[in-house]
Amino acid sequence: MIGCLSVSHKNASLPLLEALKINDETKFTHKLMENGSVQECILHQTCHRVEVFYVSSKQKNGEAVNNALKFWSTETGVSLDIISRTVQAFQGKEALRHLFYLGGGLESVVIGEDQILGQVHSSWRRAKANGTVGVILNRAFMKAINTGRKIRNETRINEGALSISSAAVDLAAKELGDLTSRKALIIGAGEAGTLAAETLKSKSAAAIMVANRSYEKSLLLAQKISGEAVQFESVLSTMPYVDLVIAAVSVTQPIFREEQVSAFVHSFEPSKRLLIIDISQPRAVEEKVGALQGISLRTIDDLKKLVAQNLKNREAEAEKSKAIIAEELERFEAELSKLVAQPLITDICRKFEEIRKKELDRAVRKMGKLDKKKLMVLDRFSRELTERIAHIPIEQLREAALSNNGEVLTVAEKIFQTKTSEPTNEINAAKKVAYEFVI
């Protein structure tokens, strides 16, 4: 069966998450598979989660979990008691659903974020390179990744900024239109200003200038976003030449007042409009500035409303995403069920074909010399007869697999005396696990 041991932002603090990170991924996953309780293993780690996806037989699942927790404790130095109390365990269908939710962005800190899909893909690729992935997890991760892409194509779960800084840029795009022809000035090179600058760069703003009390910080951020650093003392003289100002500074009272801004507003062309978005707390721009001709002032309160609406929209899209996941999970269950039955069906068909050839050869020898046309007729007749005889039991086996009826499959093995216990290819190698896979 498939399982997942998960520690994330939902059940652990950031310091604990950092402590539980596995440094040597290859060593950990191979050690987990050493004693045979785990057949496949993928370690998935981000700054917000550490998770072990694995495949084990039902009988050895408890042993697999205990070994994983012990190895985890040994590798990280975190006590087994803390790990056991913190880790959330998913099994069978719940583990699959968790994986699909993960790829869909439903488990992320920021619902619907896109980065997680690439992280899931990277974890899967690393595990493949390390040789710890078999047919079950390979198919499960491929399906989860494809479902995540489908969610982003068919819903709007990743639309609408959920951070104040990103929302400021979204609001600017709504009010100013295409930002590729707009010049912007970021005041403040802290976390909020940096995020706003990076978001502007991602929107391909025509020019981005950065001002900060520390000119060195202005230079560093400007270099990072291919922008231009501006002396803090030059902010007011720079404002007339930009279309957008985002203020993200730490102040105790407004530092940009009505009289300062009005001093340059009179020089504006009639069509000139300057959008100022103040995300500072407390405000850096005096409220009266918003009343000046040619100035539009937006505050953090406007952005909080936008973020709240965006979150509400994403939550609605999340419900659509869950419906897509439910549908894709059902399809995947059918795929796994076919995987359960396919080795047995393949062996039965092989056995039927051996019998057909043997009896056809015997009939031909008894009939004596036959021309080519008669041989073709006999061969076709024997093939069609064999296919018709095999059709009903094969369909019944597929139906048994779809309904997780392992008893029928086991009886069929005995009746047809198949040799599926000796795997010869990837699907047969996964057969024992697949037979016990309960969804």
Explain this structure to me?
This protein has three domains: 2-154, 2-Layer Sandwich (Beta Polymerase, domain 2); 164-293, Rossmann fold, CATH 3.40.50; 332-435, no CATH class. The protein is 57% helix and 12% strand. The protein has helices at 14-19, 25-33, 61-76, 80-86, 93-104, 115-130, 135-154, 164-176, 191-202, 215-224, 235-238, 258-265, 300-367, 372-402, 406-416, 426-429, 431-435, and strands at 2-8, 40-46, 49-55, 88-91, 183-187, 207-212, 228-231, 244-247, 274-278, 295-299. A six-stranded parallel beta sheet has the order 7-6-5-8-9-10. Strands 2-3-1-4 form a four-stranded antiparallel beta sheet, sandwiched between helices. β6 (207-212), α10 and β7 form a beta-alpha-beta unit. The protein starts with a strand and ends with a helix. Residues 420-433 have low confidence and may be disordered.
CATH architecture of the largest domain: 2-Layer Sandwich
Tally of DSSP β-strands: 10
Distance between the termini: 8 Å
- CATH class descriptor name of the largest domain: Alpha Beta
* Helix content, binned percent: 55-70%
Query: Number of helix segments?
Result: 17
Give the number of domains. Answer: 3
CATH superfamily of the largest domain: Glutamyl-tRNA reductase, N-terminal domain
Overall average pLDDT? 89
Q: Which fold name is given in CATH as the topology of the largest domain?
A: Beta Polymerase, domain 2
Poorly predicted regions are 420-433
Radius of gyration: 32 Å
Give the overall shape: elongated
Structural class by SSE content: alpha/beta
| Percent strand | 5-15%
Can you list the strand order of the major beta sheet?
A: 7-6-5-8-9-10
Q: Quick one: biggest sheet? A: 6 strands, parallel
H/E element sequence: EHHEEHHEHHHHEHEHEHEHEEHHHHH
